[in-house]
Amino acid sequence: MDRRLFLKGAAVAAPAAAATTLAAPAVAQDRVELNIVSTWPRDFPGLGTSAQRLARRIGEISNGEIVVNYFAAGEKVGAFDSFDTVANGDAQAYIGADYYWTGKHPGFAYFTSVPFGMIQAEWNAWLKFGGGQELWDELSGEFNLKKLTCGGTGTQAGGWFNKEIETADDLRGLKMRIPGLGGTVMSKLGASTVSLPGGQIYENLVSGAIEATEWVGPYNDYFMKFYEAAKYYYTSGMHEPGGGLAFGVNRQFWDGLSAHHQAILTAACMEENAAAPEEAVANNGAYLSKLVNEHGVELRSFNEEVWDAFGEASAEVFEETRAHSALAAKIDDSYQGALREFGGYLKIADIEFANQRNRVLGL
C-alpha cells in the first residue's frame, strides 16, 4: 500500500483482563439506578456540558425509571480511572473518549479518531452501517463493557504551539499533550508526548511542563484560555478528523436491563451523538473570531512538507497497530476499507460542492 496514500497500524500496550463484579441492575418499583462517571470536569463547555446533557436526558426519556447519578471527573474517580471503574462494576457507565484506553488495546483508538481517518459523518456511517459497532462490541466485550456512541467534536484543530511549525524538524523535542494514535505519530517525529485529562492541560501549558497541546476546536478551546500560554493556533490537524465519544456500560449491568431500558439508553445516546457535533459547528466560527480579534491569537496551517511527514509517520503507526493482534488488524481492515469507499464518494459530492460553494460565495 502507498504509505503516503494511507497508513496502517500503531502499537501501544497489551490487553488487560477486566474484573467483573457487578450483578444485575438494582431495580426497585421499576426503577434502575445508573451511576455515570466522566472523563470531563463539571460544567466544562462543550464536552462536559454534553455529558451532563446526556445524563439528564436519560432520566427525562425514561420518565424517572432510570435514576441517574452523574459524577464529573474527580468527583468519584479520576478521569482516566473511569474505564476500570465501570469494567470492575464500581459504577455502571462512563462518558469519555475511547482513545484514552489504547494502553489496554490500540483498537480503541478507531472508536474515537485516528490520524488521516474518517470525518464525523463517515465515522457514524461506519459504526451504524459498516460493521463498526459489531467490532466495537467485540473489542469492548473483552473488557466487560458495552459501548454506544454519544457525541463528537467534528474535525479538530491542529493545536496550540508556543512556536511556529515550519518543518517536521520543528517537532523534535517538543513537549506536547496529544493522546491516541495521533500522539504516537508525533512521537515518531521526535516530539515528547503525554496524555493529560482536560482539566490538567492549562496548568501544564502555563508552567512550561508542556509546550504545545491539542484539545478540540475554537468553541471548546476558547474557555480553556490556552491563548494565555501559546501564541500560535494551528487549523485542521491530522490527528482527529472526527472525534467520536463513548458511553461505556458495564456488561453485566447492560445485559440485566430490560429491552425497554436498553432502548432508552440507546435513544438518549443517539440524540446527543447528533447534538454535540452540531453544537460545535454552531459555535466554532464565532469563537475563532473571538480568539483572533480579542486575544491576538495567530492562526497558522501546517504546510505540505509537515503534512507529508505526518503521513509517513502515520503509515508506520498503522502497521504497528495491525501487528498488535488479530483483532486490531480486523478493526483496521474494516475501518480503512470503509474510509476509502466513503471518502471516494465524498470527494466528488460533499467536498466538490463545498469547494465550489465557497469559491462562488467568496468564503
Describe it for me?
- There is one protein chain.
- The strands form two sheets. Strands 1, 2, 3, 4, 5 and 11 form a six-stranded mixed beta sheet that branches. The protein has a six-stranded mixed beta sheet with strand order 8-7-9-6-10-12, covered by helices on one side.
- It contains eleven helices and twelve strands.
- Helix 1 packs antiparallel against helix 9, helix 5 (180-188) crosses helix 10 (304-324) and helix 10 (304-324) packs antiparallel against helix 11.
- The longest helix has 37 residues, at 259-295.
- The model is unreliable at 1-23 (pLDDT under 50).
- It has 363 residues and is an alpha/beta fold.
- The protein is 45% helix and 15% strand.
- The protein has a domain at 27-152 and 242-285: 3-Layer(aba) Sandwich (D-Maltodextrin-Binding Protein, domain 2), CATH 3.40.190.170.
